[in-house]
Design a protein that fits this description.
about 350 residues, alpha+beta, Aminopeptidase, seven-stranded mixed sheet, five-stranded mixed sheet, globular
Length: about 350
């Protein structure tokens, strides 16, 4: 079923939900699907960038796994007034992203506002046998960053200008929004990584607080052929080169990604930190104007390193961060960009 048809069917059956009812935070069940679709429509209107969220049958199919698991806030009448998700965004099998937190305005008070993310972040990942959990917080306010921090997640990477320009009700455009990537390591996987000298210190600093067990080793010349895929998030004007193996042809693969997506506001490259060829790949990326975003622990079930290149001057003034760790990361990224562009 197409987006327009799905939305039209939801609008035909719209029902008001009485505020103040007793609710339960629970795992998704198939009969929740229409309520979840109505919730997306109520919270996001018709503009959510993924079509299936408006189609109850597609929501049921997606929740069959393994790439989506939802938690809901349900009234005693069975009405869905809140939801959150674990979904697969990283290539690793043992890591998922937590997001999609929604609550109707009338139900944003009370303990369920914390019980919903707690069940999503603490109970569900262990039930699924995950090694790590990622969350992404917008940086135009501090609310989501504070909630995620209370759940034990630590910031590791900052994607500048990652979300598209927004237009308010008066037609005024705001600047693009940065995203802070936060991780909880549930079951660490000790490994050898090959950070380049320019990033070894900040990586060690970020890994120290959660106590990740990593051995640093010097890089080597790449061998074999580069293995990589390009991902495009059109609505965000973002292209990313996701590298599994650094080898011969990396320079050409990075150049081809940019040439094939020249109009993107943001280009990124994600490199395996466990590949001995990583330091040379970082040099190649820096020469093309890429600078640090941050490490991604267990991204491929092993660690990766995210680098970024932004069209124009990032909106530094619009970035709001919670905590000294996140601010330290921003300061390093800003200095690294200046150093890269000054090379």
């Amino acid at each position: 079923m197409g987006r327009r048809e799905s939305i039209a069917r939801l609008q035909e059956r719209l029902q008001s939900i009485e505020p103040g009812q007793k609710v339960k935070v629970d795992f998704f069940r198939p009969q929740d699907a229409e309520g979840v679709a109505r919730l997306y429509l109520a919270v996001y209107g018709e503009d959510f960038p993924i079509d299936y969220v408006y189609d109850p049958a597609a929501i049921v199919e997606a929740n069959a796994g393994p790439d989506l698991h939802q938690v809901v806030v349900r009234t005693e009448r069975g009405e869905v007034v809140g939801a959150a998700s674990l979904f697969r965004s990283a290539p690793g099998r043992h890591i998922m992203e937590a997001g999609g937190l929604m609550l109707l305005p009338e139900y944003r008070q009370g303990s369920h506002g914390l019980d919903l993310p707690r069940l999503t972040h603490k109970v569900l990942p262990r039930r699924l046998g995950l090694w790590a959990l990622q969350g992404q917080s917008v940086c135009d306010h501090l609310i989501s960053q504070k909630i995620v921090a209370r759940l034990g997640m630590s910031p590791f990477a900052l994607e500048l200008d990652a979300l598209p320009t927004q237009t308010d009700s008066a037609g005024r455009e705001s600047r693009r929004t940065a995203l802070l990537s936060q991780f909880e390591i549930i079951e660490d996987q000790p490994q050898t990584i090959y950070p380049p000298e320019r990033y070894a210190g900040i990586i060690a600093e970020l890994y120290a607080e959660p106590g990740l067990d990593r051995r640093h080793a010097p890089g080597k010349l790449p061998a074999g052929q580069t293995q990589a895929e390009v991902g495009l998030i059109a609505y965000a004007s973002l292209a990313r080169l996701e590298v599994a193996v650094v080898g011969n042809g990396f320079r050409a693969a990075l150049a081809a990604m940019e040439e094939n997506h020249p109009g993107c506001h943001l280009h990124q490259v994600c490199l395996p930190l466990t590949d001995p060829g990583l330091p040379l790949a970082v040099e190649v990326a820096c020469a093309r104007g890429y600078f640090l975003a941050g490490p991604l622990p267990l991204w491929r079930d092993e660690d990766s390193l995210l680098m970024q290149k932004v069209a124009g001057e990032p909106d530094w003034a619009g970035i709001k961060l919670f905590g000294k760790r996140a601010q330290r990361l921003l300061d390093f990224i800003r200095h690294d960009r200046e150093a890269v562009l000054g090379q």
